[in-house]
Specification:
Helices cover 36% and strands 11% of the residues. The strands form two sheets. It has a five-stranded parallel sheet. The chain has a two-stranded antiparallel ribbon with strand order 5-6. It folds into two domains: 75 residues, no CATH class; 128 residues, NAD(P)-binding Rossmann-like Domain (Rossmann fold, 3-Layer(aba) Sandwich). It has nine helices and seven strands; from the N terminus they run H-H-H-H-H-E-H-E-H-E-E-E-E-H-E-H. It is an alpha/beta fold and 244 residues long. InterPro entries: Aminoacid_DH-like_N_sf (IPR046346), NAD(P)-bd_dom_sf (IPR036291), THF_DH/CycHdrlase (IPR000672), THF_DH/CycHdrlase_cat_dom (IPR020630), THF_DH/CycHdrlase_CS (IPR020867), THF_DH/CycHdrlase_NAD-bd_dom (IPR020631).
Length: 244
């Protein structure tokens, strides 16, 4: 999807496929080469790393130069989000896509009670920060949160990124709430030719009866993530051109 989107808008994208035997030193070397290549404006490392060797994923994402970190996963870019500097770095793609979806729905974020379920470095934590800096009152839930159904029931905006299929029940959803489902899991389904189907973290069929807006899985957050990645690449190219 990323390669197709890049081609459609005139971005030259190259997919570097490495063997699963690649070690940390080798991967760092490749990233160093890309960092120093003036013709490369953006670098992303597809996560999770499908590798037989132990590789520190945080070290890898931090090794991408901040000015080429179009995934927004370098600690410097994440730190900017944490302190409310949303203009000088790159916003992480899935969280910024979630924010954009809510904006496009016409829902007022300022003053809303936004509940985020999940605190991962890639989605949950930056989503909470982005909505906070857009003046929502944010509650972040995780595996230790008590009475999750009661917390969800008070959400004007609900963003779920926990990785547990159909965890959030439809009857928990506040009537008229906006629901953004970032989860995607393959579950067995004997009625499908493939024997499986993709579902999100929210019980979609029940939740859609109560939500004013809700993202499907697949076809909701995923395509928006790709769009925000393309936006970051264009911004990176523009910034690079201004330094010439």
């Amino acid at each position: 999807m990323k390669l197709k989107a890049a081609k459609n808008i005139g971005i030259i994208a190259k997919h570097i496929v490495l063997p699963s035997s690649t070690n940390e030193i080798e991967l760092l070397g490749i990233l160093s080469h890309l960092n120093l290549d003036p013709h490369v404006h953006g670098v992303i490392v597809q996560m999770p790393l499908d590798c037989v060797n132990s590789i520190n994923s945080n070290l890898i994402t931090d090794s991408v130069f901040p000015n080429k970190d179009v995934d927004g996963l370098n600690s410097r870019n994440q730190g900017k989000v944490a302190v409310g500097d949303l203009a000088t770095g790159f916003l992480p793609c899935t969280p910024s896509g979630c924010l954009e979806l809510v904006k496009r729905s016409g829902t007022k974020i300022e003053g809303s009670h936004t509940v985020v379920i999940g605190r991962s470095r890639i989605v949950g934590t930056p989503v909470s920060e982005l909505f906070k800096w857009h003046n929502a009152t944010v509650t972040t839930c995780h595996s230790k949160t008590k009475n999750l159904d009661e917390v969800v029931a008070n959400a004007d905006i609900l963003v779920v990124a926990i990785g547990q299929p159909n965890l959030i029940k439809g009857e928990w959803i506040k009537k008229g709430a906006v629901v953004i489902d970032c989860g995607i899991t393959s579950i067995p389904d004997a009625t499908r030719k493939s024997g499986s189907r993709l579902v999100g973290d929210v019980d979609f069929e029940q939740a859609r009866k109560r939500a004013s807006w809700i993202t499907p899985v697949p076809g909701g957050v995923g395509p928006m993530t790709v769009v925000m990645l393309m936006k970051n690449i264009v911004l990176a190219a523009v910034k690079a051109a201004r330094t010439l």
